[in-house]
Design a protein that fits this description.
By secondary structure, this protein is mainly beta. It has one helix and 25 strands.
């Protein structure tokens, strides 16, 4: 029995001339699911048997310096002789940073290394705050806000409207790619007098988008009308004043500056000037004024 055992053991260790046993194979794949602080590493390997482990090496250069998952020996393959896909998600990465990694396998005899590959984490989205309007008048306002691009090329725009649903956007504004706060001024025009408006600053880079908070302002009342000409021809009083399109005006008259009466109906302005004719008849005199209707 002892002789038979020894003979069988020797035969098991022997191989015919020219026979080559396959070695494990390993290929490093590309990273995906990349965010500003994590990525999914991929690779393919064939353990060609049992007792083989896989592990990723990674770092900010080809010296790597980090092993995972599960430390230096990684994860044990199931026994097999076919190529299998492996992957692992690594977090705690630095935003907007280039990383190198490779897939290694180990079969208790030696390591086999996949090729180096690299990827760059996404930047952090911009940091955004909406500021108080820099100025307001009856027809315009200066929107204000601050964006930090967080190291990636960023653009910004304002949403604005009569409510926090907004409804209108300004054109896109380039705010650069630095790591410092950037003021983002924008002048809105064509507004309505004595009206509340809301606005919010947004900014976007390759890492994503962020909004600032909501701000609001109230435009000033419309300016008082400015008389441009007054004339009396053949008993007809004719006068013209500077007007605001879209605003209604009411002409009034008085004999004593105390009691005022309307002359006709209100007049809607469709241009920057309005003209009114009055026929005072036998009145010895009249005082006129124009009221802006809100």
């Amino acid at each position: 029995m002892k002789t038979s055992f020894i003979f069988a053991f020797v035969i098991a260790l022997s191989a015919p001339a020219g026979v080559v046993f396959a070695q494990p194979s390993v290929t490093t794949g590309g990273a995906d699911e990349i965010t500003s602080n994590s990525a999914n590493f991929n690779g393919n390997a064939n353990p060609y048997g049992c007792g083989t482990f896989w592990v990723f090496e990674w770092g900010t250069d080809t010296n790597y310096g980090n092993w995972g998952p599960n430390g230096i020996y990684g994860v044990h393959f199931s026994c097999g002789w076919t190529t299998v896909h492996v992957n692992s998600i690594f977090s705690g990465l630095i935003p907007n940073t280039k990383y190198h990694y490779r897939l290694d396998i180990y079969n208790y005899v030696q390591y086999y290394y996949g090729a180096d590959t690299n990827f760059t984490t996404l930047p952090l989205p911009p940091t955004v705050s909406t500021s108080v309007a820099s100025f307001t008048n009856a027809f315009s306002a200066g929107l204000a806000g601050i964006v930090n691009p967080n190291g990636a090329a960023s653009t910004a725009y304002y949403q604005w409207g009569l409510t926090t649903a907004y409804g209108s956007n300004t054109p896109s504004i380039n705010v650069g790619s630095g790591n410092n706060n950037v003021n983002v001024p924008y002048t809105l025009t064509g507004l309505s007098p004595n009206t509340t408006y809301h606005y919010q600053l947004w900014a976007t880079n390759s890492g994503g988008s962020n909004p600032g908070g909501d701000q609001s302002f109230v435009t000033s009342p419309p300016p008082p009308p400015v008389f441009q000409s007054v004339s009396s021809v053949g008993g007809v009083i004719l006068f013209t004043w500077q007007s605001l399109p879209g605003t209604n005006y009411q002409v009034q008259y008085s004999h004593d500056f105390i009691t005022w009466s309307n002359l006709g109906n209100s007049l809607p302005a469709i241009s920057t000037n309005l003209t009114f004719e009055d026929f005072p008849g036998a009145d010895p005199y009249r005082f006129y004024r124009v009221e802006v209707l809100q």
